[in-house]
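Appendix B, example 12.
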Amino acid sequence: MCENKLTISGETKIRENAYRKMAVHLQEHCCVCRQVQLPDKTSYQETLRNAPMLVILGGGHISLFLARLGKLIGYRIIVVDDRPDFASRERFPEADQLICLPFLQVFEKELLPEYASYVIVTRGHENDYICLREVLYRTYSYVGMIGSRSKVAFTRNRLLEDGFTEEILSEIHAPIGLDIGAQTPEEIAVSIAAELIQERTSVQQTTVVPEILEWLKTKKEAMMMVTLIEKKGSAPRGVGSRLLVCQDGAAPEQLAGVR
């Protein structure tokens, strides 16, 4: 469930200002519920979400490449490290937010968002354990931790001793990433990004990228949201993409894709 949810209701044509209201809300919260009623009284409902958040715990070599890939595949990026040189704007120019604090303090201060995807790649076993434990107390979309199978087993046993159930621990992706034989930091980052995509697309939802939210805030005319159900040729987006169509039939911008 999404807290702070805004519901927008209407007929097949959405009234003026509705999407502006939606955009403002999505920039502050995670989702908007859109309800449409057809003339025959049939109702449809879907949830629109802000671009997903990727929290990278640890600013090492893998994180360096994962932040770039995460941005390319549509995530907002937060990088956390307790070393100033590893949580700097020079090192992570693409990050939306950088946090330089001890890892436990970051969680105690509640500086990280709910419903985010968490990738744990710190420089030490103890920090990995602390981060994983604290993430499991939160509401998350994905959580994965790097490490050998022996390290993963050791951490898992500690979490069982902490009172976490097997059901909860089964949600952890560890070792993290798809098994593509990755060896280098770049390859490991690719395997993690691929797993993030796999998990994200396993749940059908509509995400609205930040650039479109800014665009929507400037629009006043009534628009209709349509879904692409068929395409021909080499169209840049697949079936399931959303478009906003103005009253004159123009489709000036793509709103979002199903992810």
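Residues 185-201 form the longest helix (17 residues). The two ends are 17 Å apart (CA to CA).
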